[in-house]
């Protein structure tokens, strides 16, 4: 949501994207016993990229600026 | 000789500009502010950040000039210049092999706790004074790689006529804050933080190589014009 605001994306659109990505991540995580933070971030970024490449890029770059 | 000194000052400023900590922090400030403030507020915060960095750089150069004046009586001895040139050469290797961490982003050599501190401060910056002090802090944090550059510039500034010294310090400050000023202009023109960060990641290796080469070139300038000719 925050990354969407940075890029002036419509809040409603970002809410829909966030909702869809959450549901996809729930499905992805269901069969797995262990998930690392890196796995989760990668899976989330991949799914966000389907809807908005720039938002996915900002999400992937979290913690990698400095 | 005055022209050579001015060129050394301008080139040293350019080399200080290639250091990425301040630029990364400014981009982080853009990113954090754009998500929660209006454009005018973001512009004020980032301009204060740049002012803070510029002021610290100006004060650092001016005080280094004073130190050179007091300790070396206005002219660094040849041995000190040679040591400075050697330090610049070593820093060139440092920039080539140590400056950037091995990652897909633009992570730098700073300890992770300090990086987290910068991220937290950039996200919580809400007024101009905080942005100003963050700019000063970032300029200060560049000191390990920047002090030798500032010393080289100060040694040249001292040799200039008094009327030109203030101009030389201004040239140095403008050159060293040029990337931040350009970033501010690009964002004003409509570029996003994504465009700028993608550009930085794509050209990371080029900037690293050129920065190291620049440090070497500055060391050679000092040897050529201050040791052999001076």
Work out the helix count of chain B. 11
Number of separate domains of chain A: 1
Largest sheet of chain B: none
- Oligomeric form: heterodimer
Tell me the radius of gyration of chain A.
12 Å
Order of helices and strands of chain A: HHHH
| Euclidean distance between termini CA atoms of chain A | 22 Å
What share of the residues of chain A does DSSP label as strand, in percent? Answer: under 5%
Approximate strand percentage of chain B:
under 5%
Shape of chain A: flat
Query: Low-confidence stretches of chain B at least 5 residues in length (pLDDT < 50)?
Result: none
Number of domains of chain B: 1
What attributes characterize this protein structure?
heterodimer, A: 66 residues, mainly alpha, 4 helices, B: 230 residues, 0% strand, globular
Give your account of this protein's structure:
The complex is a heterodimer of chains A (66) and B (230). Chain A is mostly helical and 66 residues long. Chain A has one domain. Helices cover 68% and strands 0% of the residues of chain A. In chain A, helix 2 (11-29) packs across helix 3 (37-49). The model of chain B has no long low-confidence stretch (mean pLDDT 93). Chains A and B meet through helix 1 and helix 4 of A and helix 2, helix 5 and helix 10 of B.
Secondary structure: elements and pairs:
The complex is a heterodimer of chains A (66) and B (230).
Chain A (H helix, E strand, L loop, with lengths): L1 H5 L4 H19 L7 H13 L3 H8 L6
Chain B lengths: L1 H16 L3 H14 L4 H34 L5 H20 L14 H13 L3 H14 L1 H17 L2 H15 L1 H12 L3 H10 L1 H25 L2
């Amino acid at each position: 949501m925050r990354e969407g605001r940075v890029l002036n994306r419509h809040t409603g659109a970002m809410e829909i994207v966030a909702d869809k990505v959450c549901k996809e991540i729930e499905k992805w995580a269901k069969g797995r016993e262990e998930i690392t933070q890196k796995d989760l971030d990668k899976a989330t970024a991949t799914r966000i990229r389907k809807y908005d490449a720039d938002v996915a890029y900002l999400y992937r770059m979290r913690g990698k600026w400095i | 000789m005055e022209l050579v000194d001015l060129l050394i000052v301008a080139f040293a400023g350019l080399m200080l500009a290639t250091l990425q900590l301040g630029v990364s922090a400014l981009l982080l400030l853009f990113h954090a502010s754009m998500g929660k403030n209006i454009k005018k507020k973001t512009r004020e915060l980032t301009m204060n950040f740049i002012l803070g960095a510029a002021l610290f750089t100006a004060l650092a150069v001016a005080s280094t000039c004073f130190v050179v004046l007091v300790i070396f009586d206005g002219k660094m001895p040849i041995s000190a210049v040679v040591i400075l040139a050697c330090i610049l050469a070593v820093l060139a290797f440092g920039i080539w092999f140590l400056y950037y961490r091995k990652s897909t982003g633009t992570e730098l050599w700073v300890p992770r706790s300090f990086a987290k501190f910068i991220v937290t401060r950039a996200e919580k910056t809400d007024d101009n004074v905080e942005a100003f002090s963050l700019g000063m802090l970032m300029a200060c944090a560049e000191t390990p790689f920047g002090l030798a550059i500032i010393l080289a510039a100060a040694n040249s500034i001292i040799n200039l006529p008094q009327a030109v010294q203030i101009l030389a310090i201004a040239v140095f400050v403008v050159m060293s804050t040029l990337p931040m000023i350009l970033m501010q202009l690009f964002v004003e023109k409509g570029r996003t933080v994504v465009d700028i960060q993608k550009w930085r990641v794509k050209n990371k290796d080029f900037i690293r190589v050129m920065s190291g080469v620049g440090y070497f070139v500055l060391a050679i300038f000092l040897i050529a014009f201050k040791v052999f000719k001076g």
